[in-house]
Amino acid sequence: LSGCGEGFETTTRKGQGVKEWHLSLEGGKVEAVAVWPPGRGPWPALLLIHAGKGRAQRFSRELFRLSRRGLLAMSISLPGFGDSTGPEDFAGPRSVGAVLQAMEYLASRKDVSPDGIAIYGFGQGATVALLAAIRDPRIRLVALESGVYDLGGAFNSLPPTTRERLRSIMGGSAHEKPLAYRARSPKFEADKVRGPILIMHSKGSRMFPVTESEGLAAKLRGAGRPFRFVMTRGRLR
Questions:
Q1: Residue 130: what are its φ and ψ, rounded to 5°?
Q2: How far is 120 from 43, CA to CA, in rounded Å?
Q3: Sign of the alpha-carbon torsion through 193, 126, 199, 164
Q4: Cβ-based neighbour number of residue 219 at 10 Å
Q5: Residue 115 phi/psi, 5° resolution?
Q6: How many other β-carbons are positioned within 10 Å of the β-carbon of residue 32?
Q7: Which long-range contacts does 13-17 make (Cβ < 8 Å, 24+ apart)?
Q8: Contact at 8 Å (CB) between 109 and 72?
Q9: How many Å separate Cα 59 from the centre of its chain?
């Protein structure tokens, strides 16, 4: 299969397939986990992208739960997290490249429906997921939760620790490095996504302000693109 490195693959007692391995990315590696239902498919596929300080295994329960519902579920560790090669670039080109490599893997599987590939991202992962969906037409459905979509515009409203982290990654503030922040702001190209977008935001989320989700919804509404905006009481499972 495209992009596969050495790894581990097995079948559970219930017949679910489980694979843990690494995808290759520009001389480095991307940690990946996938779980799929018994049988031969074809199944729809869902790729899950973690928030900052997470990794692929964060979604272990969700992967098995989704598999029991008839999906091939997959997650990866973004560059700089888990066992993926760093450094972290906060939704930068290596992070987007890692997601696109995962899409190559899903598209290469004969048991995955080519019209049924979706992506979910939470927090920082939502930013990466939307950037990847803008670039890859094989992503037919996008689900985003509590993300940031105009990183430069949101910079001053972020917690001090997050601003310092971004300064370290980007080499400066949004004022000092506007192009780097703009490249990580998918709101401005969100109308290029081919399929519908589900935007979710947790009430009381301290990660990114709700105005980020509201701004993305306004952008899509103005462009006449299909979307749904939902406020949640806590992180979805």
A1: -70, -40
A2: 17
A3: negative
A4: 19
A5: -95, 10
A6: 27
A7: 14/38, 15/39, 16/64, 16/67, 16/68
A8: yes
A9: 12
Query: Which tokens hold the place of 185?
Result: 């702001």
What pLDDT is recorded for position 27? 85
Per-residue pLDDT, 237: 40
Q: What tokens were used for 65? A: 């739960």
Sort 187 into a burial class: Cβ within 10 Å, 0-12 / 13-18 / 19+: buried
Distance (Å) of CA 26 to CA 1, 74, 98: 18, 21, 10
- Residue 6's pLDDT is 56
Which H or E run contains 179? helix 178-182
Which residues touch 14 (CB under 8 Å, ≥6 apart)?
A: 38
Asked whether 34 and 63 are in contact (CB, 8 A), the reply is yes
Burial class from Cβ neighbours inside 10 Å (0-12, 13-18, 19+) for residue 237 reads exposed
Instruction: Give the residue ranges of the chain where pLDDT is below 70.
Output: 1-6, 234-237
pLDDT at residue 235, rounded to an integer: 53
Q: What angle do CA 205, 209, 215 make, to 5 degrees?
A: 130
